[in-house]
Amino acid sequence: MTKCKSPRTYRNPLFLALEWKKMIESGDYASQTDLARDLGVSRVRVTQILRLLRLAPEVLENVTGLGDPLTSPTVTERKIRPIVNLQAEKQELRLKEIL
C-alpha cells in the first residue's frame, strides 16, 4: 500500500510579513529581535521579510491576491526583495516578469 502524498505548499511571503508585523504591533513581541529569537530565525531575516511591506500598493495587492499558501514557489521573498526599492511602475513590470 502506497501513501498518498499531499501536495507541497509554500507560504506567500507577504502574508508572512503581515503576520509578523501584526505580532510586533500587537505587543506580543517587543522588537524584531525578540520575534526572530522566538521564531528561530535571524533578526536580518525578519527585517528582510518585513521590508516587503514597502512594495507599492498595487504590487502588494497583486501578490496577496495570489492567496496563501501557494501551490508553487512562484512568488518568494528572494524573488521580490530586489524590486522593493524600485519605482512603483517598475515594481509592477518586474512582478509581471516574475509571475
Structural account:
- By secondary structure, the chain is mainly alpha-helical.
- The protein has one domain (about 15-99).
- The chain contains six helices and no strands.
Outline:
By secondary structure, the protein is mainly α. It is built from 6 helices and no strands.
Q: Major sheet: size, sense and barrel closure?
A: none
Structural class: mainly alpha
Oligomer: single chain
Please tell me how large the radius of gyration is.
Answer: 15 Å
* Sequence stretches where pLDDT stays below 50 over 5 or more residues: none
Distance between the termini: 38 Å
DSSP strand count: 0
- How big a fraction of the residues is strand? under 5%
The coarse silhouette is globular
Q: Which terms would index this structure?
A:
mainly alpha; globular
Topology:
Elements: H1 13-25, H2 32-39, H3 43-51, H4 57-64, H5 77-80, H6 88-98
Helix pairs in contact: 1-3, 2-3
